[in-house]
Amino acid sequence: MRTIRIAIFYFIIFSLAKANVTLPSVISDHMVLQRDLPVKLWGKADVGENVSVTLNGQTAHTKTGKDGVWKVQLKAMPYGGPYEMTIQGKNAIVLRNILIGDIWVCSGQSNMQFALANSDNGQEEISHANYPKIRLITVNWGMSDVPLIEASTRGGWAECNPKTAERFSAVGYFFGRELHRQMDIPIGLINTPWGGTVIETWTSLPMMQTLNEYAEKLKLMQSPDFSYRLKNPKKPDLSELLEVEPGKIEQWYLPETDVSDWKTVTLPSRWSDEGIKGLGSIWYRKEFSLTNAQVKSAVTIGLGIVDDWDETYLNGQRIGTTPTYSVNRQYPVCPDGLREGKNVLVVKVVNWGGDAGMFDSPDRLFCRANDKYIPLTGEWRYKISTMIDVMDDIGSNDFPSLLYNAMIAPLTRFPIKGVIWYQGESNSLEAYKYRTLFPNLINDWRKSWGQGDFPFYFVQLADWEAPLPEPSESNWAEFRESQSLALKLPNTGQAVIFDVGNPYDIHPTNKQDVGYRLALNALALTYGKDIVYSGPTYDAMTIEGDQIILHFIHTGSGMIAKGKYGYLTGFSIAGVDQKFVWAKATIEGNKVIVQSDRVTSPVAVRYGWANNPYDANLYNKEGLPASPFRTDTWKVSTQGNY
Question: What CATH fold (topology level) applies to the domain 99-233+392-530?
Answer without folding.
Answer: Rossmann fold (3.40.50)
